[in-house]
Amino acid sequence: MGNMEHHRGLSAEKRAAAVEEYEKKRYTVVGDLAIKAVEQAIEALASLENLHFHASPRSAHAKRMMWVKKRFPELSGYVDMLWGAYGVLGYEGVDGERAKKVLEAMEVILDAFERKAGIRFK
To answer: What is the value of pTM for the model shown?
Structure first.
């Protein structure tokens, strides 16, 4: 099981990689990396409550979504937009504007996590 610092570090790495890939116009991976950055941040925060969603891969996504929407209801629209754009970018990948919106949603989510929990994801 990873601890908070482990997941925090993975989130920061994936966050930076998502930005770098956007700058290189590699839009097909921006959604993947942005989602993974947010998932790792959720795992980091949840680990403070001794929750480890990744331990049950089949239900991890659903449990993460329930957890984040319960604790951060103001982020629900950003979370939904992030996952909604995932398929479009992952399979079509030509939309730089969509990739930009994904990065913006990722930043809003991670910034809110940072403010509320006092944990840096950069």
So the answer is: 0.91
Task: Pull the structure tokens for residue 54.
Answer: 């990744």
- Which amino acid, residue 82? L
Rg (CA), the chain: 13
Distance CA 106, CA 12 (A): 11
Cβ contacts of 120 within 8 Å, gap of 6 or more: 8, 12, 114
Query: DSSP label at 121?
Result: -
SS3 call for 43: helix
| 122 residues of the chain, pLDDT tens digit each | 458 999 999 999 999 999 999 999 988 889 889 999 999 999 999 999 999 998 899 999 899 999 999 999 999 999 998 888 766 666 665 668 888 989 999 999 999 999 999 999 98
Q: Which residues contact 110 (CB under 8 A, 6 or more apart)?
A: 11, 15, 37, 38, 41, 121, 122
